[in-house]
Known about the structure:
Elements lengths: L2 H29 L1 E3 L5 E3 L12 E3 L12 E2 L6 E7 L4 H19 L4 E7 L4 H12 L5 H10 L1 H5 L4 H11 L4 H8 L2 H16 L8 E6 L2 E6 L4 H11 L2 H4 L1
Parallel strand pairs: 5-6
Antiparallel strand pairs: 1-2, 3-8, 4-6, 5-7, 7-8
Amino acid sequence: xxxxxxxxxxxxxxxxxxxxxxAAGMYLSWKGFVMTDGGEIVLVKSAQxxxxxxxxxxxxxxxxxxxxxxxLGKANAxxxxxxxxxFGCFHCADFHLDTLPLLKEKYIDKGLxxxxxxxxxxDKASMxxxxxxxxxxxxxxxxxxxxxxxxxxxxxLSRNPQKVLMQYAALSGLGQExxxxxxxxxENAREILTNRxxxxxxxxxxxxxxxxxxxxxxxxxxxxxxxxxxxxxILQQKIDVKNKN
Length: 245
């Protein structure tokens, strides 16, 4: 091999590496991740959260039944927060890892707020995660949800997301054969997609995360990522003073 050919091969390799890192950077940015100076990939905090977002009124048909299969908090809480979320959505991960624990401590654990988790898959991997979640034991559902958000970077950037998701399901007590069956469960898939479609047509969901608030004031919607301070301000207005004590 001539020196000229060696130089050409080295140049081609360097160009390919450069294209790879540019493409990877664009993909990571789109998914909500950035690479630090030390080379670590980290999840960006929600930059789109609105400090003083106000919910919009929703005209929900009287006979419409809201999904309530997976919830945290008391059924008779004065306010219900419906979270429409996708496992591959990085702002959804922000909410579950950063904001939800604060809401749980201040409102849910005190019986003032009920949270209903409604899966709204926006890609195949998120749909696979939703199907697997339906098959874990009921008491392990929300811990499994938390794992999927905590490990979002690992499975979403994997060449085989389904395989990684099944490994997490195994740690939640779901055997491989049952997990495979879950991924092919048409009944669960139809229910998930029906809730998703109803979210679009009935709740006017435009993306994830989105939040529907049910209170004495009726139904209202908050689109997009929100800070704890925004939820706190809204809930202070929705919950009667006598219920705060």
